[in-house]
Amino acid sequence: MTQRLLNNKTALICLILLSIICLMGAFAPFLAPHDPNLADVINTLLPMSGEYPLGTDYLGRCIYSRLLFGVRTTLYYSLITMVITAAVGALIGIISGYLRGKVDALIMRACEVMLSFPYEIIVLSIVGILGPGIGNIILANFIAKIAWYVRIVRGSVISFNHKNYMLYSKTVKSPQRFIFAKHLAPNITAEVIILATLDLGWIILSISTLSFLGLGVQPPTAEWGAMLNDAKEVLFSNPEQMIVPGLAIMVVVACCNLLGDALRDVLDPRTEHKQC
Amino acid sequence: MLLELKDITKSFAKDDSWFFKRYQDVLKGVSLSLNKGECIGIVGESGSGKSTLGKVILGLETQDSGSVTFSNEISQLPRHKAVSVVFQDYNTSVNPRLNIAQIIAEPLINEGLEKSQLKAQISKLLIEVGLEDSMRARYPHQLSGGQLQRVCIARAIAANPRFILLDEAVSSLDVSIQVQILDLLLELKQSRNIAYLFITHDIAVASYLCDRLMFFKDGKIVEQVNDIAALPLVTNEYTKNLLNAASYLEIPFDINDVDK
């Protein structure tokens, strides 16, 4: 698999880019030249310079510093949301697909109810009821997305359970842990990773959108969606203020989507050329 | 006697709603017995219940009534040493994420073989089924259909089982490969004294491999042929039709007309 990953240029470039962005977020206190939340009314809306590499916003805060610290809120929280949702969703999906019967029927009906509401309505309702804040955004995205994971994993478990190699394992009574570790887990993990990577871009957009609407990360915390919200105050006089956070969101979301697509090939051994 | 089926019945729900259920009888009192080292062919059209019978024998489906009894000798063995199976669809018979060595290793791991023993045993099995040892590191998508079916056979015989169920095991292969696989199965049957239950819709293939044939229609055995040489003497109308259709398909035109 490592070889296939190294051979896939798209996956490799996206992975390197995302890793660099993550590391920049992790080392933000060392890389940022200024306090990201420190307002300086004398130095508002400054252009790019040695002291302020990406200029300052309408409150005189260093955009470069806010961009670096914004990785923590935008990307890290999205990653946390994605990991929790995928892990819990996969677990419930496996239970549902494995046990079938009444447990499966109950879980599926609950999923159907959740899926019958538009995603945005669920997120906005939960944030509206519980109030703004990153914890509530993570919870809202988790609730809105988990049904997808449960359904997809449950479907995969049922489909894999009927594959002939699973029937063979059941015939010769291979231990359950062997069946799970060798047959079920690798196949399902690959599907969940692909889905989660594609979903990561979606969650980033969701968190940024909520912050843009003032329902997400609260000021003065640096977050890319919130930075866009701040930039809209000077949309007509300084439109370039929108470019930096907008571009950052676009690059990360594009990387996530391209990585998800490329991982589909990387994680499937059948995509290799036939040798005979 | 190695395996005995007594009056097996099985039905599936046709309409499985919350308010009412309708059932369709798939097996209607099937009885047969299989001796050690013997090969019985279950011949019938698609949808006649042959594969369901196979699944009941393997324990993948539970019969509604009747009994599946293996001999004492078989019952006392660990399952992987007693029973094995080769399916029709070789593509879904192997996990695409495992290489050939890992696929064949499954019953050997069940047997508790050490890593060093595994390697030698896998090489032996690959050679026994007519494949090269160098193929062990390949993945299923890198093999042809015939090679993959040989891998499935290698896995099936790995733990030296006494009984193998062959569920349309050669139906997906082209005719020349079919003969090779059938010869391999015959060879293994003789060298390892394995009993086969060969489920197929192809009389020609069944008569090539099997000692006895049982004709299956609508979930029951309609005729049994204990001597392949007596195949033309069948009396049941359905069996006669099957035989006629088979001979018609085999020679659909006068061979002398080909050049015209």
Architecture overview:
The complex is a heterodimer of chains A (276) and B (260). With 276 residues, chain A is mainly α. Helices cover 71% and strands 0% of the residues of chain A. Chain A has a single domain (71-271), classed as Orthogonal Bundle (MetI-like fold). Chain B has 2 domains: 3-77 and 162-251, 3-Layer(aba) Sandwich (Rossmann fold); 96-161. Chain B has helices at residues 50-58, 72-75, 79-82, 90-93, 100-110, 115-128, 145-157, 175-192, 203-209, 237-250, and strands at residues 3-16, 21-34, 39-44, 65-70, 83-86, 163-167, 195-200, 212-217, 220-225. Chain B has a 6-stranded mixed β-sheet, sandwiched between helices. In chain B, strands 2-1-4 form a 3-stranded antiparallel β-sheet. Chain A binds chain B through residues 163-165, 167-175, 178, 182-183, 186-187, 190, 268-270, 272, 274-276, and chain B through 55, 58-60, 78-80, 83-85, 87, 89, 92-98, 102-103, 106-107, 109-110, 138-139, 141-144, 147, 155, 159.
* Cα-atom radius of gyration of chain B: 20 Å
Termini of chain A, distance in Å?
20 Å
CATH architecture of chain A: Orthogonal Bundle
**Mind summarizing the main beta sheet of chain B?**
6 strands, mixed
Q: Give the averaged pLDDT of chain A, no decimals.
A: 90
CATH class of chain A: Mainly Alpha
Uncertain segments of chain B: none
> How many β-strand runs of chain A?
0
What integer is the average pLDDT of chain B?
88
What's the number of structural domains of chain A?
1
What is the beta-strand fraction of chain A?
Answer: under 5%
CATH fold assignment of chain A? MetI-like fold
Which structural class should the secondary elements of chain B be placed in? alpha/beta
Helix content of chain B: 25-40%
Radius of gyration of chain A, CA atoms, in whole angstroms? 22 Å
Helix content of chain A: over 70%
From the spread of the alpha carbons, the general shape of chain A counts as elongated
Say what the CATH topology of the largest domain in chain B is. Rossmann fold
